């Protein structure tokens, strides 16, 4: 996969793209990430990328011309990029979107700044995406979130495929609790079932815990679960102590 990032702060990405799984994926050429400075596509001698908003108001607005110049230049290459604007006004990003986009050959991510981008940018993009109901200084942090979520779903990025398949949100559930050594820490014990060696019992316990955690922490997700799963969960709740 190729990911192109359009930003006025290209240095923001220097360290994150060298670290951990993302850095290794780039080293192995599983993933190609290219960062482009929007100022390079401005045509005036000052490389201006923002201007005062029509109608007045606080702050500045990102200009359309440099962004469209950048997009048209990048789209001359094959494969064509799926263009995403990162904005708090966009559709909420989730695991389903991450999995869908992980199958694309190329993404172009636009990082907004200031009070936003001239709204006519909507004629030149495919999607507007938000990573949450809060305001960031710019789209760069959001771009890293999207890239990280997508990249770990690309074959070869994460060594153990099972760890990806069982993560939170993959099945519409939060992930079950995880434990490691020591077995007892300051009087707090690891659940006995995880030490039993009974793999079927462990699998059942983990699935039940995932549902329980989802119900307690994310009732909005729990409501969306299929009726048969919720029915089975309620049955177990009434017949045994899950701890």
Could you describe the 3D structure shown?
- The chain is α/β, with parallel strands linked by helices and 243 residues long.
- The protein folds into 2 domains: 2-151, Alpha/beta knot (3-Layer(aba) Sandwich); 166-239, Orthogonal Bundle (Trp Operon Repressor, Chain A), CATH 1.10.1270.20.
- 33% of the residues lie in helices and 17% in strands.
- The protein has helices at residues 20-27, 64-74, 95-101, 140-151, 161-165, 199-217, 219-222, 227-239; strands at residues 2-7, 32-37, 50-51, 61-62, 82-92, 106-111, 127-130, 184-185, 188-189.
- Strands 2-1-6-5-7 form a 5-stranded parallel sheet, with helices on both faces.
- β1, α1 and β2 (32-37) form a beta-alpha-beta unit.
- The model is unreliable at 239-243 (pLDDT under 50).
What sort of overall outline do the alpha carbons produce when their principal axes are compared? elongated
Number of domains: 2
Under the CATH scheme, the architecture of the largest domain is: 3-Layer(aba) Sandwich
Task: Please estimate the helix content.
Answer: 25-40%
Query: What is the CATH homology-level superfamily of the largest domain?
Result: SPOUT methyltransferase, trefoil knot domain
Using only C-alpha atoms, the radius of gyration works out to: 23 Å
Q: Which stretches are low in confidence, meaning pLDDT under 50 for 5 or more residues running?
A: 239-243
Overall pLDDT metric = 92
| CATH class label of the largest domain | Alpha Beta
Q: How many beta-strand elements?
A: 9
Sheet having the most strands: 5 strands, parallel
Tell me the number of helical segments per DSSP (H or I, 4 or more residues long): 8
CATH topological fold name of the largest domain: Alpha/beta knot
Strand-pairing-aware structural class:
alpha/beta
N- to C-terminal separation?
43 Å
């Amino acid at each position: 996969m190729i990911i192109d990032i359009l930003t006025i702060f290209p240095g923001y990405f220097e360290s994150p793209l060298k670290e951990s799984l993302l850095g290794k994926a780039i080293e192995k050429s599983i993933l190609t990430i290219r960062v482009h400075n929007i100022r390079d596509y401005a045509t005036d001698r000052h490389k201006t990328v923002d201007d005062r908003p029509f109608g007045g108001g606080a702050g500045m607005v990102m200009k359309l011309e440099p962004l469209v110049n950048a997009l048209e230049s990048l789209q001359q290459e094959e494969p064509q990029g799926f263009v995403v604007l990162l904005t708090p006004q966009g559709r909420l990003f989730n695991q389903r979107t991450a999995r869908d986009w992980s199958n694309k050959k190329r993404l172009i991510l636009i990082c907004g700044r200031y009070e936003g981008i001239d709204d006519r940018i909507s004629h030149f993009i495919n999607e507007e995406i938000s990573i949450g109901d809060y305001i960031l200084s710019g789209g760069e942090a959001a771009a890293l979130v999207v890239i990280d979520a997508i990249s770990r779903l690309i074959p070869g990025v994460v060594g153990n495929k099972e760890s990806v398949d069982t993560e939170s949100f993959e099945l519409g559930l939060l992930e079950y609790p995880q434990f490691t050594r020591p077995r007892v820490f300051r009087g707090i014990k690891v659940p006995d079932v995880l030490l039993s060696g009974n793999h079927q019992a462990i699998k059942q316990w983990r699935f039940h815990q995932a549902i329980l955690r989802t119900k307690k922490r994310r009732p909005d997700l729990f409501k969306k679960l299929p009726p048969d799963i919720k029915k089975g969960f309620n049955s177990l709740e009434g017949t045994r102590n899950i701890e």
